[in-house]
Amino acid sequence: MNNYSKVIGGILLVSGTTIGAAMLALPVSTGLAGFWPSVALLIVCWLFMTYTAFLILEVNLWLGENTNLISMAKATLGRFGEVVSWATYLFLLYALTTAYIAGSGPIVIDAIHAFTGISLPAYAGSIPLLLIFGFFVYRGTASVDFINRILMLGLVVSYAIIVVLLTPHVEPQLLQHADWPELLIAVSVVATSFGFHIIIPSLTTYLNKDISKLKTTILIGSIIPVIVYILWEALSLGVIPLQGEHSIVSGYQKGTNGAQLISSILDNTTIAVVARCFAFFAIVTSFIGVSLSLSDFLADGLKIKKTRLGRLVLCLLTFVPPALIALIDPRAFLTALEYAGAFGVIVLLVLLPSLMVWRGRYYQHFKSSFETPGGKAALCIVIAFALIVIGLEVANKLGVITA
Fold it and tell me: How many domains does the chain have?
């Protein structure tokens, strides 16, 4: 494979890892603030998350091959860093798996009702996801890779179709709404939408530590999702009203995703089907990737061998806890993404990388051919950003900040 193809492959890997089911939550989490405030928040979060991706790249280049976020934290922050990163990573994977299980239920129930007229109970909606796609996770990486290629094709095609179909229905006046303080409740979900950092060690090896290619890959690979998200926000917020039965407000309160709201609002069978397909592909592609990572993480952490019985135990540990949470909380899709953003993504992918670089660069004096620009001032700004986001989500959950 030539170098040009590798860069293209790396860009697609970054973009593909970034774009996922969290995208469905963007309209309901940012829509209360309005389109233009949402665009501003997307750009700010992209800047911070891309910057911390370069911080992780810097640490990775210090430590060489066969490193991951946990081993990086251990090498720079000691045993404390290792424990915090391990616990945070586990929490993040469980929170995301919970969100995807919860998000799949209403889509399956709506689809079955639309095609058969049968109304299934809420708890039955997630069963097909767990049984069908959980089986691929049980089979392992090769099976997940096979089905993921098909699902990614479905995601790309359904997104392209929904862009074409929704454009004529956009009402420009809906995009003029702006309530900037409402952005405070959306920061954690938007941050979750830019979490591609865990693939950087693999990317470094894939591109043979070529700094120029790595910078290009991370930068372009992270810009593509921004464009995709902004277009999705323009289409969805230009269609979904702020108030009413199927509105931004009701969607936020109930934890309904943007594609569901669109299919409910527009009296168009084709759009409804495509919207459901788009939501389904977005959730399932994220679900199988994250749940496979969680299963592998548990296998490594608990030293469970991947025998037939071992894989069954891993599947039970992977799927049962998030499935129970999804059943208990009717708003679990959005709630889990909020928790994942504030206490998973922000701690693991923003706060810890900043602390790792600070200690490694200024106390342990690690050197490499790449240093993220900005010095101590930039690191302080990133740390402050992380603490502010965590504080906002705590305030939101305590009811200090309300929608």
Answer: 1
